[in-house]
Amino acid sequence: MISETRATDECRPLRADAARNRELILETAAQVFAEHGLEAGYDEIARRAGIGVGTVYRRFPQRAELVQALFESRIAEIVAIAGQAAERPDAFDGLAWFLEKALERQVADRGLKEVMASSIVHDQHRVIGRERLGPILENLVARAQAAGTLRPDITPTDLGMQLMVMSSMTTAEQPDLWRRCLALLLEGLRQRPGQEPLPLCAPADEAMQHLMCNLQGR
Amino acid sequence: MISETRATDECRPLRADAARNRELILETAAQVFAEHGLEAGYDEIARRAGIGVGTVYRRFPQRAELVQALFESRIAEIVAIAGQAAERPDAFDGLAWFLEKALERQVADRGLKEVMASSIVHDQHRVIGRERLGPILENLVARAQAAGTLRPDITPTDLGMQLMVMSSMTTAEQPDLWRRCLALLLEGLRQRPGQEPLPLCAPADEAMQHLMCNLQGR
DNA sequence: AGTGAAGCGGAAAGAAGGTTCCGGTTCACA
DNA sequence: TGTGAACCGGAACCTTCTTTCCGCTTCACT
To answer: Same domain for A31 and A53?
Structure first.
């Protein structure tokens, strides 16, 4: 259901039973990752899927492959949201809308949160996150700044960080907590007359990477 | 240096060599916890102190005892800062100053961050954090709200969360990142005419606990 | 100096995961 | 239906970290 029966990327197609198991693993992993994050044990996935650990390892020897297969579509969804946000008539509103919608998705799925974060740190996931999201975020920011509604000293990196932080502070059990923080943040983001500039800070991307490492623990 | 040679709380005084080791463990643990957080292995502490693991376990069979012994004074420092902040003439400025000073301390010490967070979740550390900090924070908030400078719908819990979040996003290598976020937050905290109220949210303390669990991982 | 209680180091045991491997099974194809 | 390649399960094996245990050392006191 998650992806059609298909070859192991290049080689000949999987045998019927193997293909069946592959789907089963993907479906089960989606649940397990959403609940326990990307570091959930393969044995938990195997147990819930009712198959052996060996089977999971054989199909996805690298955890990254499993993650990639699982979250590609969900990242695409968020990229699409960013695209739609850029088309809204009011630029600031577009930005706010993007943050809200992106958070709604991240908050429901611990795995997705971590993929969003790790797509910035780890090279293996970069493709599915940052490089597709980055330019659109830049566009959203530039547009709202040109309209004079977003403070001029905000960077796309600032927003990325706030996004990660807000999603890291919310769980499925507390579905509304982030809304409160987002409302607060949006107040802070607005350009106002006579504003002091934000304190400068070390290279933004480097900062972002440190943040991500930190939020993921270790 | 961290605490004078003294009895194991009730019993007769430690032997000279044991007391010496106790101090050595505390000093070393302070470093190790600051670098690796509260979950750092006892063997790492022992290795750096140049003593056996057994010695560390004998002196501090419960990790909580070690943590308590280490961070009591540092929490007291933060409580003192909150007290000073409450005496500043401008209430909003006092709040801002408290957040800044508290963060300066938390940011430098990963262990302290975790103690601040866990003092809210785990009963064993509660005493050294929340119960002493809570009333003072409440006072800071109430005072700034009475002065009409802090938005009236902010709760002490909001601030506690923001404090945890900002400290969790900063490392010693990125000493300035949190300043940028704090500046942004302060903009959002100010009361302004015609403000929309913040979205309401599940019981604040429960939310706080979820957040803390989350930031600490697991 | 002699004595025994307190303390020490670090090897060994235990606990919790993650990963590999191999005997047996299932499938695809002739 | 027969055959070999692909695949399966899960026990065994690593790894990493925590905790205990015990023979030897050091200290305090006489």
So the answer is: yes
